[in-house]
Amino acid sequence: MILGLKKNEVKIVPYDSEWKNEFMRTHSEIIEHTNIQFDRIQHIGSTSIEGIQAKPIIDILMGVEDINNISDSFLKAMKKAGFYRLRVERPAEIVFAKFTDDTFEIKTHFVHLVNYQGEKWCDLLFFRDYLNENESIKRQYEKLKLNFLNSNLQGIDEYTSYKEQFVQSIFDKRSPLTGDE
Predict the structure, then answer these.
(1) Rounded distance between C-alpha atoms, residue 150 and residue 154, angstroms
(2) Is it the case that residue 138 has pLDDT exceeding 70?
């Protein structure tokens, strides 16, 4: 199993059953270094969708009580687990990455830290579960990703934008939460 992408690189590789094992290994490392509960660490992203081609990066969803109240000790614990906070600015989300080495050129894992049971938490898990339960939708998503590679577009921002309408259409199938995130 080969993991990792350089900054702004978009590459799609065949499904690898080892992705699940890598998630479980990383899950254990995170638990060893942080106080995050077992069920608040979930495998998401395309590597969590059975049988489809994906970018070779393990995406992990982590839920905390209050995303706006993250302690320095938690950030240090994540660093001990091999994850570095990125300067990515997203509402109600903190993003961490793990790299192949200390050159920080190739990212292998992302952690998306969000409010546990908040809207982002629920949307991302719903997306994963919906695609795993719906073969035709899963194949549409895979085809969309492969079509991007055959377009004149490039880079991670254009890749994300290219998929946005599809992803949002899946989120929209979920019943909205009551209450605030």
Answers:
(1) 10
(2) yes
Identify the three-state secondary structure at position 68: coil
What do you get for the CA distance between the two ends of the chain, in Å? 37
Residue spans of alpha helices (H) in the chain: 18-33, 72-80, 119-133, 135-149, 156-171
- The mean per-residue pLDDT over the stretch 160-177 comes to 89
Q: Are 109 and 5 spatial neighbours (Cβ–Cβ below 8 Å)?
A: no
pLDDT tens, residue by residue, 101-137: 999 999 999 999 999 999 999 999 999 999 999 999 9
Q: What is the mean pLDDT of residues 90-103?
A: 94
- Biggest alpha carbon distance in the chain? 44
DSSP string, 159-179: HHHHHHHHHHHHHTTSPPPSS
Ordered by where they begin, the domains of the chain are 5-171 (3.30.460.10)
What integer pLDDT is reported at residue 8 of this predicted model?
93
The residue among 92, 110, 95, 133 whose CA lies nearest residue 54 is 110
